[in-house]
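Subject: sequence -> structure tokens, single chain

Hey, anyone have a minute? Need the predicted structure for the following. Not urgent.
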Amino acid sequence: MEKLYVENGRLMAGGAPLLLRGFGLGGWLLPEGYMWKFYTKCDRPRRIEALIEELCGAEYAASFWERYYDSYITEADIRLAAENGFNSVRLPFNARHLMEPGYLRRIDDCVRWCGRHGIYAILDMHAAPGGQTGQNIDDSERDLPELFMRPEHQDELCALWEMLAARYSGEAAVAGFDLLNEPLVKKDAGYNSQLVPLYMRLADAIRRADPERIVIWEGAHWATDFSVFDALEKEELPENLVLQFHKYWSPPEEESLRSFMATAGRLGLPLYCGESGENNLDWYASMFPMLDRLGISWSFWSYKKMSTPNSVSVFPEPERWGELLGFLDGGERPAHPQEIFDGFLDCVGSSEIRRDVISALCRRPPVRIPAVAFDECRASGPRRRGADFRPASPVTIIFAGGHTGAPDFRRYGGEPQPESERMLVELCDGDSVTYRIDCSGLARVRIAASAAEGLSADGGSGYVSIGQCGGEAVVRLDGKLSLVCASGKALLGYIEVFEL
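Reply:
Had a minute. Here:
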């Protein structure tokens, strides 16, 4: 496979532009409590490790983690990503374990699997020495960003990245190094001035061992604050640099990305949305195709979790798991806890693949697309007041209930949008909307719409009346679907597409 590099603000491979599209392998080498339904009760690796050792003993705990690492992600998961058209994975890891031979071997395994199946691995320092965030996600000991408080932690971080750079020097399957995940939340912004100098130091250390390796810099405050890059000029940047942002529970609209795009454009750098997800399928079918359209690489978070409708790989909740949750809430110690954790490992190895999640991420039939997630539009008249969503669009967007204001996209567990948040696209004479769809050929298109008698659909080979057919028609698609209102007014809710 071709090694990635940066040229003229784009990621390139073999002389051609390339967008990274893939999955974050959260929960594997850095388990997070919420992925096990522990939430704040036992929210980070060091606390989960302590729980298992307390209940089951050190010998069992060592065996548990070996079996866990061997089964949570396997080559089959990398193969599945490649077979479904994805080209990358982002691999979070924990500095606290990085020098353990068995732990490093798992990173080697992942890189080898990626190379075998032709996809790229982004190595993600999710938990740096001392903690870069001061939260559960960085496995911090005292909920402080001690990486920025103690110089010896920065020295250790440099040594670790230099070690990884030497280990994977010239390895084409490694797309790049994500130097720090989500550094410095807002309450610790007093340390922000240290971030870019540390990034520069890390890039220098990496380049001593691997001169052409891509390095990735995240913004501050959950990777949403790019103001830390405001003082930078193009001339002082290291080569092969990518900027990364994260996006959750917020409007899936281009306007919300303007600050990231402006910074990347000013500095002539590619953008990478290294984490986005943890929402419902309608949000996915809006967000990720928008990133594709804007030429922004992305990684869906998270590929695998317990008992949820909104990840790709989902494993069931083990029997007697409630006893463990009760213990964490101050209840009785569960009897035979090893049986519970053995059952957990059995569940981890029997995951279900949610094809509906993959379809939503790619807009690949069968798929449902919110009408407000159009990629192009044309309006013959002024936009009237309605929902505060996609304000730069000339097409009118309203709430089904008739109220005004900003929509709420916080659907943490994948729940559907409530009726109070349902939005509609209003098309009048001559108005049209177009959607990118990963489908070429005949498809059955079903439109949830009202007053749609004058509505027609076109997939690139001519218009088909859809309003006179009960909102449903067979259309030949060539990667897109256009809906046009020839007369009257139509209110569009959803578009469903089924490949024939």
